[in-house]
TrEMBL record:
This is Ribulose-phosphate 3-epimerase. It comes from Indibacter alkaliphilus (strain CCUG 57479 / KCTC 22604 / LW1). Its EC number is 5.1.3.1. Pfam families: Ribul_P_3_epim. PROSITE patterns: RIBUL_P_3_EPIMER_1, RIBUL_P_3_EPIMER_2. The gene is rpe. Binds 1 divalent metal cation per subunit. Pathway: Carbohydrate degradation.
Length: 216
């Protein structure tokens, strides 16, 4: 399956979100990645439910919503109602991960689990068949434009083996520092979806940047 691209609107022009979303609609992007930060789980605040609703109003691509928040269970229904088609929660923020995954699926969304750079993929072994998507953080979450963590390649390979061993259909998403220099290496390691924020929105031609990533 060709790689899928999920541009992160965290890096877009917030004063012109509608224009940026409409640009993504006409691009070859597969998803629109929406990073939700609460200033508690991560040291930054981005946006929440109203902005997600506003993005969904104009989006013609599925919303891939990444909850970098504490107590995500309290907000699953609200983000689903706001238009999320994929809801990813952090392993580190969930006391009862299996229950949270089931709750997401009961809402009719795909269930994702994000893991921080220090978190081992081995911790997902017992629930991997319940996860639609694992989002491997290739930077420390909280801010865009960070340097890619090189250990990510080995982490992707290890997760791919776990998915295969368990006979799961889980997709692997990479979030953080993705660019033209590491995208093909990530795909070779087993990545299915690449989140690209600054690399897309700071380029002179975001359409072509997305297109070039798709061609790798």
């Amino acid at each position: 399956m060709p790689v899928q691209i999920a541009p992160s609107v965290l890096a877009c022009d917030f004063a012109n979100i509608q224009r940026e979303v409409e640009m993504l609609n006409t691009s070859e992007a597969d998803y629109i990645h929406v990073d939700i930060m609460d200033g508690v789980f991560v040291p930054n605040i981005s946006f929440g439910i109203p902005v997600t609703q506003a993005i969904h109003k104009h989006a013609r691509k599925p919303l891939d919503v990444h909850l970098m928040i504490v107590n995500p269970d309290n907000y699953l229904e609200a983000f689903r109602n706001a238009g999320a088609e994929i809801i990813s929660v952090h392993y580190e923020a969930c006391d009862h991960l299996h229950r949270t995954l089931q709750a997401i699926k009961q809402l009719g969304a795909k269930a994702g689990v994000a893991i921080n750079p220090h978190t081992s993929v081995d911790l997902l072994e017992d629930v991997i068949k319940d996860i639609d998507l694992v989002c491997i953080m290739s930077v420390n979450p909280g801010f865009g434009g960070q340097k890619f963590i090189e250990n990510t390649y080995q982490k992707v390979e290890k997760l791919k083996k776990l998915i295969s061993h368990k006979g799961a259909d889980t997709l692997i998403e990479i979030d953080g520092g993705v660019n033209k220099n590491n995208a093909s290496l990530l795909m070779d390691a087993g990545a299915d979806i690449l989140v690209a924020g600054s690399f897309v929105f700071s380029s002179s031609n975001p359409h072509k940047t997305i297109q070039d990533l798709k061609k790798l």
